[in-house]
Specification:
The protein folds into two domains: about 10-180, Rossmann fold; about 185-380, Dehydroquinate synthase-like, alpha domain. About 50% of the residues lie in helices and about 10% in strands. The chain has helices at about 25, 40-45, 50-55, 75-85, 100-110, 115-120, 185-205, 210-225, 225-230, 235-255, 260-275, 275-305, 315-330, 350-355, 360-365, 370-380; strands spanning about 10-15, 35, 60-65, 90-95, 130-135, 150-155, 160-165, 170-175. The strands form two sheets. The protein has a six-stranded parallel β-sheet, with helices on both faces. The protein has a two-stranded antiparallel sheet with strand order 6-7. Strand 6 and strand 7 (about 160-165) form a beta hairpin. The longest helix is centred in the last third of the chain and has 31 residues, at about 275-305.
Length: about 375
C-alpha cells in the first residue's frame, strides 16, 4: 500500500433524489453560453429536455454537440472539439455515458489552437483548463464524471489510450438516478460491471492507499448489493441511485489509485475489435482475478467481510466466494463470456498479447507481474 497519496475529485457533487434540480444553482453564476455534449438517442429519450428547460428559464444561450461514437478515436474527438471551439461557450455540460463525458472533459482543456488531441496522446500535461464543466452521467458505470482520464482510440495502433491530466476533473457533478432509468439492460449491465471492475481493481492495485480503499470498498458494497436489481428493475430508483453513487466512488478510487490488468488487457479488445468497454472488462474480470488471487487473497477476504455477514467461512472460502460472485454477476446479467461471438480465434492471440503488453500504465499497478505468456493464457481462457 502506498504511504504517500492524495485525493482529487470534482469541486461540487450533487446526488440523491431530484439532484438534477441543482442545475439551476450551478449555471446561475456568470455563465453566458453553454455547450451540451450528448447524443441524439438521449435527446430522443427525453433525458436532455429537463436540463434545456432550466437553461432556457435562465435565459442562457446554448448549443448541443451530438454524433460522438460510443468508442471514439482521437480523430472523432478532435472533430467534436473543433465544432465546440467555434461556439465560444464558457460552460460545458456533458449528459451521457463515458465516451460523451470523456470528450467533454477533453473539450474543457482543448479550447485552444496551441495543441490537439493527438498532441495530448504524447504529452497529456501540455494542456491547461480552459472552460468549466459539469458531468451528468446517464450510465452507472464508467465513473468518468470523477476522473481526470479520457480514453480515446488510436486506430493505427489498434489500441485505446488514456489521456490523463488532473485539470480534466469536472468542476461539478450531478448524480440523479432518473437519468439511468430508461437505460437498456445490456448497456446498464456492461457499464455496471465496468464500475465493479474499477472498484475491485483499485482495491487490489499496487497503488491502493487509505483514501482509495475507503472509496473502493464503499463502491464494492453498493455495487455488489444493487447491480442486479438496478439493471433488471426499471422502477427501482433506490438501486439506481446506489449504483450511480457506487460508480462515482469507483471513479474517485481510480483517481486515487488505478486500475490493473483487467483494464490493460481489455484495451486491445476495444481498440481493434470495437468490443464495448464494459463488455471487454466483463470478459476479463474473472480470469484476471483468478490469476491474481494468490497475491490478493487477503484483500478479497476484506471485500467478503464488507459485503457479507457470514464469518464462518475460511479465508480461502471467502476469497473464492468473491471471485465466484463476480463470475455469477456477469452470467446473470447475460454479458458475453467468450470472444467467439466476435470472431476472435486463437490465431488472433499474438496481436492481443502484443497490444495488451503495451498498456504499461496499468499493468504496473497489478500486484502480480503479467508476462506475455500470462496474458496469452488469460486471453485463451475467454476464446
Amino acid at each position: 500500500m502506498l504511504e504517500n497519496y492524495s485525493l482529487k475529485m470534482p469541486r461540487i457533487i450533487h446526488a440523491g433524489e431530484n439532484a438534477l434540480e441543482k442545475l439551476e444553482t450551478i449555471i446561475n453564476e456568470n455563465v453566458s453560453k453553454i455547450t451540451i455534449f450528448t447524443s441524439e438517442g438521449l435527446i430522443n429519450l427525453g433525458l436532455v429536455e429537463n436540463s434545456i428547460q432550466i437553461i432556457k428559464k435562465l435565459g442562457i444561450d446554448y448549443t448541443t454537440i451530438t454524433g460522438i461514437p460510443p468508442e471514439p478515436n482521437y480523430k472523432d474527438v478532435q472533430s467534436a472539439i473543433d465544432t465546440f471551439k467555434k461556439e465560444n461557450s464558457d460552460f460545458i455540460i456533458a449528459i451521457g455515458g463515458g465516451s460523451i463525458m470523456d470528450v467533454a472533459k477533453l473539450a474543457s482543456i482543448l479550447n485552444t489552437d496551441a495543441y490537439t488531441v493527438k498532441d495530448l496522446l504524447d504529452d497529456p500535461l501540455l494542456a491547461e483548463k480552459q472552460v468549466s464543466s459539469l458531468m451528468i452521467p446517464t450510465t452507472a458505470g464508467t465513473g468518468a464524471e470523477a476522473t481526470p482520464n479520457a480514453i480515446v482510440g488510436v486506430p493505427e495502433k489498434e489500441l485505446k489510450i488514456g489521456i490523463v491530466n488532473d485539470l480534466m476533473i469536472a468542476d461539478y457533478v450531478i448524480l440523479d438516478g432518473r437519468m439511468t432509468q430508461n437505460l437498456p439492460k445490456d448497456i446498464a449491465a456492461a457499464t455496471g460491471v465496468d464500475a465493479l471492475c474499477h472498484a475491485i481493481e483499485c482495491y487490489t492495485s499496487k497503488k491502493a492507499n487509505s483514501i482509495s480503499n475507503m472509496f473502493a470498498l464503499e463502491a464494492l458494497d453498493l455495487i455488489f448489493n444493487n447491480i442486479i436489481e438496478s439493471c433488471t428493475e426499471r422502477e427501482s430508483l433506490k438501486a439506481k441511485r446506489n449504483m450511480l453513487l457506487g460508480a462515482f466512488y469507483g471513479g474517485v478510487a481510480i483517481t486515487a489509485s488505478g486500475t490493473t490488468a483487467v483494464h490493460a488487457l481489455s484495451y486491445p479488445l476495444g481498440g481493434k475489435y470495437h468490443i464495448a468497454h464494459g463488455v471487454s472488462n466483463a470478459l476479463l474480470l474473472t480470469p484476471v482475478m483468478r490469476f491474481n488471487e494468490p497475491y490478493i487473497k487477503e484483500l478479497l477476504v476484506n471485500v467478503y467481510d464488507r459485503i457479507e455477514k457470514n464469518n464462518e467461512k475460511s479465508n480461502d472460502e471467502k476469497s473464492s466466494y468473491i471471485i465466484n460472485k463476480l463470475e455469477k454477476i456477469v452470467e446473470e446479467l447475460q454479458i458475453p463470456t467468450s470472444l467467439k461471438q466476435y470472431q476472435i480465434t486463437e490465431s488472433d492471440i499474438d496481436g492481443l498479447v502484443a497490444a495488451g503488453m503495451e498498456v504499461t500504465r496499468l499493468l504496473v499497478n497489478n500486484k502480480r507481474v503479467v508476462k506475455p505468456e500470462d496474458a496469452r493464457k488469460i486471453y485463451l481462457e475467454i476464446i
